[in-house]
Structure formats: C-alpha cells, structure tokens
Design a protein that fits this description.
single chain; 2 domains; about 35% helix; Rossmann fold; 5-stranded mixed β-sheet; 7-stranded mixed β-sheet
C-alpha cells in the first residue's frame, strides 16, 4: 500500500504569500512565532539542565550537550540498545533513520536489533506484543500517529489486556517493556493524514500508559522511563518540536517518572494545565496576561496524560481557584474533558470560575489554514481574562 506523501517546498515555506496562515500580521502582539531560543520552558544553560531535582546523582554531576528533540530521542534509543540486549527497535524505514531521523545510525551499531518492517501497523504492533510476551523489550515505531489506527485492535485487545489477563503469572506474560513510539500533532501543513493528535483515544484504555514530552531533556528521560516500565506505553512525540526545540540535555542516561505532572511555573490566580507543544503557546499567553492583567498564572505540564497526576492538578487548582486546560487534539471527549470533570469533583468549593477547555476544533485538519484548528495565544489569553473577570 502506498502512503500519501506530503511534499514541503522550501520556497513555499519561506513565502508568506504562499502560506499566509503561517505568518503573523505585521503589528501582531500575541500570535507571533515562539522564540525557542529564549522560552523559559527550555534549558538554555548547562546549569539549568543539571539543576533538575528529578535527575539521579550521576546525571546532575555530569555534563550536557545542546541538542534538539529528535537527537534526544536518538540518544535514549542508543543507550537502551547498548545497555540491554533485550531491546529491539523496528518500524517502517527505521533502519535508515526514519522520516524524522530519530533512529539515525542505530542500525549500523545494532545490526541485528534495529530493522525495517513491512508497511503494516497491525503487523508491527502484533510482532511487538509477541516479542514483549517472550521477554524482549521492543520499541515499535509507527511512522505517523495518523497511521496507528489499523493497530488499534492489537493495542486495545492484546497489549492493554496482557497484564490483567496474566494475573499472578506476570513476568513476561504481562507485555511489560513494550513501547509504541509515534510522531503526533500538527506542523501547519500536514493536512488529513499527518496532523492528528489521537492521544485521548488511548487514555480510555486501562493497562496502557500514554506519555507526551515537551522538550528534548524530557523526551530522553521519559522515553528511558517508558522502556524500563512494566506496562505497555504509548509514547507520542510532538513532531513540530523535533527540530524547533533545542536545549541543554544531560549526557548521562536518566529516567523521569511516568504518571507525575510538573509545575513549570508557580502562580496564585489561574492554573493552566497542558502538555506537549501547546505548553509553548500557554507560556506566551500567560506572559502577556500577567503583564496586562497584573495576575499570576501557574503552568502545569501533565507529561503523562494517562494515568495522569490528579493530585498535582487538584492541588494547584485548590490554590488558584481557576483552571484552564489546553490541548491540540479535538475538544470533544478529549483529555481536557477528563481533567475538567476531575477538577469539578475535587475542587468545586474552591473554584472561582468555571473550568475552561481551550482545544482543537472538532473537525478534520485541512491542508489550508490548518493552524486555525488548534489553540493559539489569543484563545488562551482570552480564557485567562475570562477566568479572572468571572
């Protein structure tokens, strides 16, 4: 089966006339491109990167390298393959580096354990499940998250149920060590089959963990944590950040905890809960809101969207009294709906305003004006103002 291929023209990328929706208006104040070189969400110095208290002693006292997100993924995969002979890496075009180069050069060093597969997502995931049940720790790459749906049956009816079905017989029968990686999210011109964010579909399934990193340092630690986890993990990599997000990343191997949210910025008036790429939108919006409204906004990164850190989110909302959830995927039945329901149940007496969701519109992403489908700085900014003025 041939895949639909999106061709990106350098001339089109550079021309505001070719893609007017990708450029901001001349006098725009809010919806301007993210400056990844200065955003506080990335570590712009080795000192900042090594100050993370979640890092083990060896990593905190080591060195860093300034790399982007796909290079951080590559570093994590390389360490996993080198340190554990049970680790396998496979998928469509993985051996030559993959579409986004995440597995670049790995097949050269690990010839027997990094290999290409046929174009069959059901076969890729089915093989990964069988390998995990036999004691291996397979990392299966789905070329785009949009392509994962043929494997949905394998994920829901096999991978997610293995540990429950095994009961006290656990061990390799639990399918632990299985990681399914996939690039997800919009890039501005991916259209119907290269722009989807289907994470909420997997958050309905007991037995799976769903992780979405926001940065290179997070991607490295969370991926190594996922590979070490004894539950099957869906690891969704925001494709728009592969090259855009560059920061100092500890050189030593380290794991970050799954299921634990992180407070990226303390605040006292409004809590914004998000994950992945939209966190950069939220940071830009809250910076403008704090300047204009003289308020204080707390920003929380879920990191793991299932099972997510309810205690951390409710603690934040009980402090601020206001909650906004932001995600790129569609509004209907999204991660935001679950967070909003939990906040309403656990923080009702402390809420000063209705819980708000700022999410992608409930429509398919078309090629033209794709960026209008997902939350922008203005929408998040307006939600902060609405929460404060309620």
């Amino acid at each position: 089966m041939l895949r639909p291929i999106v061709r990106w023209s350098p001339r089109a990328l550079c021309s505001s006339r070719a893609r007017t929706y990708a450029s901001h208006a001349p006098k725009a104040r809010l919806n301007i491109p993210t400056d990844y070189s200065s955003t506080p969400l990335l570590h712009h110095s080795a000192k900042s990167a090594l100050a993370n208290k979640e890092l083990p002693y060896e990593a905190r006292n080591g060195t860093t390298s300034r790399i982007n997100l796909f290079q951080a993924i590559n570093a994590a995969l390389s360490h996993a393959l080198r340190s554990d002979h049970r680790v396998l890496l496979f998928g469509e075009d993985v051996a030559f580096g993959g579409v986004f180069r995440c597995s670049m050069n790995l097949a050269t060093e690990f010839q027997d354990r990094v290999f290409n597969t046929p174009l069959t997502e059901q076969g890729i995931v089915g093989f990964a499940i069988g390998a995990a049940m036999e004691g291996m720790r397979p990392i299966a790459e789905i070329q785009f998250a949009d392509y994962v749906f043929p494997a949905f049956d394998q994920i829901v009816n096999e991978a997610a149920k293995c540990r429950y079905r095994a009961g006290s017989n656990g061990g390799s029968m639990s399918c632990g060590g299985l990681v399914i990686r996939m690039p997800s999210g919009a890039v501005g011109h991916g259209a119907l089959y290269h722009s989807q964010s289907p994470e909420s579909l997997f958050t309905h399934i007991p037995g799976m963990r769903v992780v979405v990193p926001r940065s290179p340092s997070q991607a490295k630690g969370l991926l190594l944590g996922a590979i070490a986890c004894n539950d099957p993990v869906i690891f969704m990599e925001p494709k728009s950040l592969y090259r855009a997000a560059v920061e100092h990343v500890p050189a030593e191997p380290y794991t970050l905890p799954l299921g634990t949210a992180e407070v990226l910025k303390e605040g006292k008036d409004v809590t914004i809960v998000s994950y992945g790429t939209p966190l950069y939108t939220c940071q830009s919006a809250l910076a403008a809101a704090e300047r204009d409204f003289k308020c204080s906004v707390e920003l929380v990164d879920l990191r793991t969207v299932y099972p997510w850190d309810r205690q951390a989110v409710m603690a934040s909302v009980n402090k601020t009294g206001r909650c906004i959830i932001v995600h790129e995927s569609m509004l209907n039945a999204g991660v935001g709906a679950e967070v909003a329901a939990t906040v309403q149940e656990g923080c009702f007496l402390r809420l000063e305003a209705p819980v708000q969701r700022v999410a992608g519109w409930s429509t398919h992403p078309g090629l033209a004006y794709e960026k209008f489908n997902i939350p922008d700085v203005v929408r998040v900014y307006d939600s902060i103002r609405k929460a404060l003025n309620y």
